[in-house]
Design a protein that fits this description.
The complex is a heterodimer of chains A (403) and B (391). Chain A is mainly α and 403 residues long. Helix content of chain A is 72%, strand content 1%. Chain B has a four-stranded antiparallel β-sheet. The chains are: A mainly alpha (403), B alpha+beta (391).
Chain lengths: 403, 391
C-alpha cells in the first residue's frame, strides 16, 4: 500500500472522465443485431451446422470474457501495480461473463446435434461411451455447466462491484477483500475452465482424452483477453481517454505478457501433440488425425505459424513491445488467430457426429455478434463508470511504473 | 585524456532511489558522458534518467539462439537420417516433433550462455579485473543499501572541484575521490584462486566417481542390476544347456535375407542365370571386387599368375578351356560355396557383386581369347570417336 494521509489513499491520477464517442455504442449494437439476425437465419437453414458455428463463437466469447476476469483477479492476487491503470478495461471486457448462461441455452437445446454421447443408441453400441456415461450424461452435464456459469457470474459481480465501489469510497479494505476473492476465484477457475473445456470441446470426440486440454484453453483465454485489453488500452490511451501518465513502459508489460502467453500456448499445444504423436495409440491419435486430413492439415499448419511463429517473432524486440502501432496490430492478429483456434478446436469434431465438414458462411455470422456484444457492453459500461480505477491504492505506483 | 594521472573519478552516495534518479538526470543534463550509477538492485526508470540506449546484447542472444536451432536441427538430421539411419519407435528418420524438445533446450542453453559470456567479455572486459572501484568504501555501500554515482575523470568536462560541488548540490553524501590502483594489474590466477579451483576439481571429480562407481551399486540404487532377466554371457540355471543366450530356432532367417537355395547342388547351370547387364558401372564394380577378393590367388588378369605362385596351392588360370566353358551359374555356385581349397565367399561378397565379378571374368576371358570380329569392332569404335586405330 502506498503512503496514506488521514486514512485516504493519495490519488494523483490526473484522470478526467471523457465520454466515449457515441457511435461506438451504435457500432457495437448494430454488429450485435446483424450477427443475431444472420445467426438466426443460419440456424433456420441448417440447425446442425449452425450449432457447431455457434459453439465455435461461444468458445471464443468465453475465452475473452473469462480470460479478462482472470486478468483482473490475477492483478489482485499477484499485487501487480503496472496493470492497475488497465484493470477497468479488463473489467469491462469481462462483462459478458454473466450472459454465458443465457448464451449457452441454445447449445443446451441442441446438444444432440453436437455430442454423439447424447444419443442412447450410440452409447448402447459403444463400450467406451457406456463406461463414460457416468460423467457424460445429459443431466449431470447441464447441472455442472450451469453451476460453472453461475459461479463465474457470482465472482464477476463481487469483484467488479467492489472495484467500482472503491472509486467512490476510496476504501482500501476493498482491495484486501478483493485479493481474497481473487485467490478463491483463481483456484475455482483452474478447475472450472478444465471442466468447461472437457465438456464443450473434448466430449465432442468422446473417445479421445487429454489431461492438458484445460490448460490449452486457459492459455488461449488469457492470450486473447490480453490482446483485447492491449488493443483497448492502447487505443484509449492514445486518444486521451485515460491519463497522460500512461507511457510506453506500461505498454511494454502488456506486450511482454502477450509474448509470454504466445510461448506458453506453443509449449502446451506442443506438449499435448508430441506425447500423443509419439505414443501413437489408436484412442489418442484420432484427434490429431481428424485435424490432419483434408483442409484441416492446412489449418493446423497455419495455426502453428499464426498462433506461434508470427507473434513470437513480432513481439521479440523491446521496440515492438513499446510501439503502440505494432501492439495494436499484434492484438488484432491475436484476436483473429484465437477465433481460428476455437474453430480448430470445435469444427473437425463434426465428423464424430456423422457430418461432413466444409467451410460455410454460417461460421462467420456468430463472431460478428460476439465482437458486437463486446463493443456494446464496453461502451455501455464506459458511460457509467470511470475508465481508470481512481480509488485503487496502487494506482499511483501503477502510473509511476517505469522500466 | 586524464586530467589527473591517478584520479579515476569522484563518487557520491545517495539514500533513496528518487534522489539517485534525479542526480543521474542532472549529471546527464550537465553534459557529462563518462559517469556511471551503481545501485543494489535494478531501478525502474534509470535507463531513461541516464539516457541509455537499449543494449545491443539482445542481438547476440537472438543470433546465438537462431544459429543454435539451425545447427542442432541440421546435426540431428545428419546423424539420424543420413550418417547412421536408425528407426526409433517406428517414426520417420527425420521425425521433427521428436527433435523439437532438443532444439528448444539447445537453443535456450546456447542463447543464455552466449549472453553470459558475451557480457563477461564485452561489458566486464575480462580478464581485466582491476577496476578502480573495487575494494572501495563506495562499492561496499552500493552493494548493500546505498545508491551511488561516479563522475569519471576521463570526461572532457571533468574538473575535480566542479564535480565535487555538483555532487554536493545534488545531495550526495560521503563524496570520495577514487584513484587508480598503484599496481595496474591484478593477476587473474592468484595462488588462492588456483588452490580453490584445484579443490573444486578434485571434489567434483571424486564425488562423481564415488556416485557413479560406488553409490550406484549400493541399495537402493542397484535395482537395475537385480532384474529378472538373462544376461548375455551368464550361466543359466533354467535351460538344460546352461546357456542364457538362446540360439535361434532352426530355419530362422535374418530380415531382408533370402537364403541361398542351391547350397548342396554342385551344378547350378540349369537354374541360375546372370541377372545383370554388362554395363560400365557393373563391370567397374566387378573389377573392384575381383581385384579385392579374387586376384590374390587367380592373378590380376585371372591368369593364375599371382604373388602366391609357388608358395601355396596356386589358383588356376581362368582362361583355360574348362573354365571358359563354365556357365555363369556354375561360377556363381563356386564363389558362393567354394571349391577344393577355395573357401566360400558368400559372407564377403554380396549377390549382386558376385554377378558383377562373373561379368568381369567374362571380359577378362574375352580379352585373352579375342574373336576376329572384336578387332573390327574396336576399329569402328575408335573411328567413331576419331582416334587412330593403331593406338
Amino acid at each position: 500500500m502506498p503512503q496514506t494521509e488521514s486514512g485516504k489513499p493519495v490519488v494523483e491520477s490526473g484522470y478526467v472522465k471523457k465520454e466515449l464517442p457515441k457511435n461506438i455504442g451504435t457500432i457495437g449494437m448494430s454488429l450485435l443485431v446483424l450477427g443475431i439476425i444472420l445467426g438466426t437465419a443460419s440456424y433456420l437453414i441448417d440447425p446442425a451446422r449452425a450449432s457447431f458455428s455457434y459453439l465455435t463463437s461461444f468458445v471464443f466469447l468465453v475465452c475473452i470474457g473469462i480470460g479478462s476476469l482472470f486478468l483482473v483477479s490475477l492483478e489482485y492476487a499477484a499485487g501487480a501495480v503496472w496493470s492497475v491503470p488497465f484493470r477497468r478495461i479488463s473489467e469491462f471486457l469481462s462483462a459478458s461473463v454473466p450472459f454465458f448462461l443465457i448464451l449457452a441455452l441454445p447449445l443446451f437445446f441442441n446438444m444432440h446435434n453436437l455430442f454423439i454421447w447424447t444419443n442412447p443408441a450410440a452409447v448402447a453400441g459403444d463400450a467406451v461411451l457406456r463406461q463414460r456415461a457416468t460423467y457424460l450424461n445429459i443431466p449431470f452435464f447441464i447441472i455442472r455447466d450451469v453451476l460453472i456459469f453461475v459461479i463465474w457470474a457470482i465472482f464477476y459481480y463481487v469483484l467488479i462491484k467492489n472495484s467500482r465501489k472503491q472509486d467512490l469510497t476510496l476504501d482500501q479494505s476493498i482491495t484486501t477483500r478483493n485479493i481474497k476473492f481473487s485467490i478463491a476465484f483463481i483456484v475455482i477457475f483452474a478447475f472450472s475452465i478444465s471442466i468447461f473445456s472437457f465438456d464443450w470441446m473434448m466430449s465432442m470426440t468422446p473417445h479421445w482424452f487429454s489431461t492438458i486440454f484445460g490448460v490449452y484453453l486457459f492459455s488461449d483465454a488469457v492470450w486473447v483477453a490480453l490482446a483485447f485489453t492491449t488493443f483497448a488500452a492502447v487505443t484509449l490511451a492514445e486518444r486521451g481517454y485515460l491519463t497522460s501518465k500512461i507511457k510506453k513502459d506500461h505498454y511494454y508489460s502488456l506486450g511482454t505478457l502477450m509474448f509470454a502467453f504466445t510461448v506458453f500456448w506453443a509449449y502446451i499445444a506442443f506438449a499435448q501433440y508430441m506425447l500423443q504423436w509419439y505414443a501413437n495409440l489408436p484412442e489418442e491419435i484420432v484427434y490429431f488425425q481428424q485435424r490432419w486430413t483434408g483442409v484441416w492439415k492446412i489449418i493446423s499448419l497455419a495455426l502453428v505459424i499464426t498462433h506461434f511463429i508470427v507473434p513470437f517473432l513480432l513481439l521479440i524486440p523491446r521496440s515492438s513491445k513499446t510501439n503502440p502501432k505494432i501492439l495494436k496490430f499484434a492484438a488484432i492478429w491475436i484476436i483473429a488467430v484465437q477465433f481460428l483456434d476455437s474453430y480448430w478446436l470445435v469444427m473437425p469434431s463434426m465428423v464424430d457426429n456423422g457430418l461432413t465438414f466444409h467451410i460455410s458462411w454460417m461460421d462467420f455470422t456468430f463472431p460478428i455478434a460476439v465482437i458486437g456484444l463486446i463493443i456494446y457492453l464496453f461502451s455501455l459500461l464506459a458511460k457509467k463508470n470511470n475508465l481508470l480505477a481512481i480509488g485503487d491504492p496502487k494506482l499511483k505506483r501503477g502510473l509511476d511504473f517505469r522500466l | 585524456m586524464h586530467n589527473d594521472k591517478n584520479l579515476f573519478g569522484v563518487a557520491a552516495l545517495f539514500d533513496t532511489p528518487d534522489e539517485i534518479i534525479n542526480a543521474a538526470k542532472k549529471v546527464k543534463s550537465s553534459g557529462f558522458k563518462y559517469y556511471d550509477v551503481n545501485t543494489p538492485y535494478p531501478l525502474h526508470g534509470m535507463d531513461d534518467a541516464m539516457g541509455l540506449k537499449s543494449s545491443k546484447m539482445g542481438y547476440v542472444t537472438l543470433f546465438a539462439g537462431f544459429a543454435a536451432a539451425a545447427f542442432i536441427l541440421f546435426f540431428m538430421w545428419w546423424t539420424i537420417a543420413i550418417s547412421y539411419p536408425l528407426v526409433i519407435g517406428g517414426k520417420p528418420f527425420f521425425a521433427l516433433p521428436a527433435f523439437v524438445p532438443i532444439t528448444f533446450e539447445f537453443t535456450v542453453l546456447t542463447a543464455v550462455l552466449s549472453t553470459v559470456f558475451g557480457m563477461i567479455a564485452v561489458v566486464f572486459n575480462l580478464p581485466f579485473n582491476s577496476h578502480p572501484l573495487h575494494d572501495t568504501n563506495y562499492m561496499k555501500k552500493v552493494s548493500s543499501d546505498k545508491y551511488g554515482l561516479v563522475i569519471e575523470a576521463a570526461d572532457e568536462l571533468f574538473e575535480e572541484d566542479k564535480a565535487v560541488s555538483l555532487l554536493k548540490d545534488l545531495g550526495g553524501k560521503d563524496i570520495e575521490k577514487i584513484y587508480y590502483p598503484e599496481k595496474e594489474e591484478h593477476k587473474i590466477f592468484q595462488p588462492r584462486f588456483l588452490v580453490f579451483l584445484a579443490v573444486v576439481a578434485i571434489l567434483t571429480a571424486g564425488g562423481t566417481y564415488v556416485t557413479l562407481n560406488k553409490f550406484m551399486y549400493l541399495p537402493p540404487f542397484d535395482f537395475m542390476l537385480n532384474q529378472n532377466k538373462g544376461l548375455a554371457q551368464a550361466k543359466s540355471t533354467f535351460f538344460y544347456d546352461e546357456r542364457e543366450m538362446r540360439t535361434p530356432v532352426e530355419g530362422t532367417v535374418a530380415r531382408h535375407f533370402i537364403p541361398y537355395a542351391y547350397q548342396s547342388q554342385a551344378d547350378t547351370t540349369e537354374v541360375l542365370a546372370d541377372p545383370l547387364l554388362p554395363t560400365q558401372k557393373i563391370l567397374k564394380l566387378g573389377q573392384e571386387k575381383f581385384l579385392t577378393f579374387c586376384s590374390p590367388c587367380h592373378g590380376d588378369y585371372g591368369d593364375g599368375n599371382s604373388r602366391l605362385m609357388g608358395q601355396f596351392p596356386a589358383g588356376p588360370t581362368l582362361h583355360s578351356d574348362r573354365v571358359t566353358g563354365f556357365s555363369d551359374g556354375r561360377i556363381y555356385n563356386i564363389i558362393t560355396n567354394g571349391q577344393n581349397v577355395m573357401p566360400s565367399y558368400a559372407r564377403q561378397i554380396t549377390r549382386e557383386q558376385r554377378w558383377a565379378i562373373i561379368n568381369y571374368i567374362r571380359v577378362l576371358q574375352r580379352a585373352q581369347n579375342p574373336k576376329p570380329s572384336d578387332f573390327t569392332d574396336i576399329k569402328e569404335i575408335n573411328k567413331e570417336s576419331g582416334q587412330n586405330a593403331s593406338n
